[in-house]
Every structure is written in C-alpha cells, then in structure tokens.
Request: fold
Amino acid sequence: MSLITILIAVVLERLTNAIENLRSFTWLTRVTGMIRARAEGFGLGGTAALVVTLAVPLVIVAVIFLLVGGMLAGIVGLLLGLIVLLFCLGPRDLNRQVDSYLEAGAMKDEDREMKHARELLGEDNVPGDAAERSSAVLQKALSESNPRLFAVLFWFVILGPLGAVLYRLSHLLQAPATEEKPAVATAEGEQGNEGEDKPQAEPTEDGFRQAAVRLVALLDWIPARLVALGYALTGTFDRAFPVLRSNFTGPLAGMAEQNERLLRDAGSEAVQLDDVDMKDPLEARSAVERASNLVFRTLIAFVAVLALLTIVGLA
Reply:
C-alpha cells in the first residue's frame, strides 16, 4: 500500500500545483497553539507540552483510520493515506520552485529570478550577485529536499500516515514563537496617532520550541543520511560518499546543523561542484540544474528500493 500511495502522491505532486495551492497550515498552527496553551495551563512545559501537542492530532488521525480505514477492502484507508501524504509534503514543491528560478534566469528576467530566489531563500537572504544567488539556491535545493520530500516519505513508509503527520507537525512546531514588543513612546511620553511605532513581533526562545527542534533533528537523522547516500549513488560516488562517511555521526547538540550540512556537502560533491565554475553566473545556473536533477534521480532510486522491498514483502 505504501508503494502505491507514494507513487500516486509523487506523480500528482509533479504534474499539478493544485494540491500545493490547497496546502495551508494556518488552521493547524492555531489548533496546535490552543492545545499547547491548554497543556501549559496544566503546568506542563517544554518537552511535556510538546508531547501532548503532538499526541492529540496523532490520536485523532489514528482513530479515524481505525474506524473507516478498512472499509471497501481497504480502499478508504488507501485514499485517506494518500490525502494525508499529499497534505504533509512540501508545503511548496521544490522542483517547481527551482525550475521557475532557472526559467527566469534563462529568459534573463532578473526581477522574476529575484522573486523566485526570495521564495526559496527568504526575503533577507538573497545575494545581489547572480552567481552567488545561484549558489545559494543550489545549496537550498540540496538541503530542503529532505524536509519537503524525503523525510516525509521515509516516515510514511515506517509508520504509515501517522509518521507523515508526526514529521510535518514537528516541523511546524519548531517555528519560532513570537511576542509583541511594546511600541516606543514619543517625546511627550505618549504614542502618536499618525506614524506611531506599532508593536513588533519578535521571535522568542522557549523550552517548547527547543524540544521541537531536537525532535525534528532526530526525525531527520536517518532520512538525511539515506538521502546523502542517494546523492552518492546517483551522482559522483567517489566524491560524495566520503562526505557521508565523515559526517555520519556527530554531537546531539548540533544534530540539526549537521544534517543540513551533510546534505549540502554530499550533494555538492555528487554534482562535482567547482568553486571556480560557481563564480560564473551561467555555470552556476547549470550547477543548479544538475542539483535539481540529482534530487529527482535520488527520488527515483528511493521509489525503486521501496518497490523491491515491497516485492520481497518487507514493506
């Protein structure tokens, strides 16, 4: 069932952006926020509050599958699993974003290129230099393939729909919470009406978010190494595999950074990234295309391995 569900989900994800447009986690963030607030109201904090916040949606999903998943010879369960998987991917399709960036560069439309780069890198992280911008997009494509695609698929195979929900929820809950900063008073000790300084939302660190970050790092650990191995097998093995071997283990405190660095470095070696070539805008864009193709080949390898495991009865 996992193989069929993943095949359908991957095909739909690549053929249409209709599902991507329907993905909105705003309501889910509000619901988990309410659960967290209730848990903290009972004196729970940090890891305990995170466990409760995750447990409630997971239990609801599990109950739904237990009640209706077996209907129509399991077809209902298959459809529900497909819906859950499609909802947990992304939220944006990485391949489509990278293709849009490359298309804008090929058309020499710098405004569009900057727009797509901002969507990938964030508003404040887009280099002005074209070659540096493509290099940043390449690194992002290699590292983001795991949380957007491969980690979700991995946990779906291991734990079914609950695994996909667990990963996506954990990823959402690690986002920084915000608190409002009081407005700055005017010289008269009062706030003006026109042009007054409005309260600003600033990210806050708390035990809850730190626990979520650690959980995501743990959930990413195995998939990140499998993806790095996939990069090596579908790219230049003798350059990428040593990176995986040297970064296979590391301290728990820096696990999240190590996971991301491993994917960037292994992917860069797999596409034979050359620092000299990356100084030229055209060569840099060509490297981005090679990295995008590498991610796709790794996805094909993932599905092929899953198919073999299904045939021998291990998946």
